[in-house]
Amino acid sequence: MSFGHEDDMPVCESEDETFIDQRDIDYFEGYVGANISFPSGSVWTLKESIGEHAYYEVRPEVRGAFIASKVSGDGPATALIKIRLQIPDYSEATYLANIRPGQAVEAPHNFSSEIEALSLLTKAGCSCTPSLYDWKKDKQTDQEPVPRGYKLFILMELLPGIMPEDLFFSEDSEDGAREERDELRSAFKKSWL
Fold first, then answer.
1. How far is Cα 58 from Cα 61, in angstroms, rounded to an integer?
2. Which of 10, 93, 124, 148 is the residue whose CA sits 20 to 30 A from 23?
3. Domain spanning 11-160: CATH superfamily
4. Is the pLDDT of residue 19 over 70?
5. At the top level of its lineage, which domain of life is listed (predicted)?
6. Taking the CB of residue 32, how many other CB atoms lie within 10 A of it?
7. Average per-residue pLDDT in the chain?
8. What ranges do the domains of the chain cover?
9. Greatest mean pLDDT among 10-14, 62-66, 67-71, 175-179
């Protein structure tokens, strides 16, 4: 899990600095096979990446989801781990490692909101959302995209079926998925209230 001076990394030249073309970066390269430990004492190995998406709107970050298997501790044999990493601002993504730490910020507030929502839904026994097993906040190392930037982990139940965004954003979402979306919304509302 490193970020920096790889010769094969895509680069864009500008008049004053060398920039990385972030659209071509796999921020989670090397994560599959890594062990992640959680405050409860459980340790998990990331087995398979099932999605990654970069966001640049407010705070640049990349989010990834991984299927993980338990190495030790409490929990089922298999779970889902969501990871959120702060990434360099698109206009300042540079090879200069001494600049990237200056971009480090605290974890976004919506991370706490997500943990709180998952915790409440887990306590309510909601069957349409994954149970929250554990979570942690960490800081990135000097070899990661934003040294000292946030790195967030959520360990949750791996549910069968399709991801909800497949219902909401698929090409046929206007046709056949309306009933399924309404059922999902109703289940969320019932659990939340």
1. 9
2. 148
3. Phosphorylase Kinase; domain 1 (3.30.200.20)
4. no
5. Eukaryota
6. 14
7. 78
8. 11-160, 162-193
9. 67-71
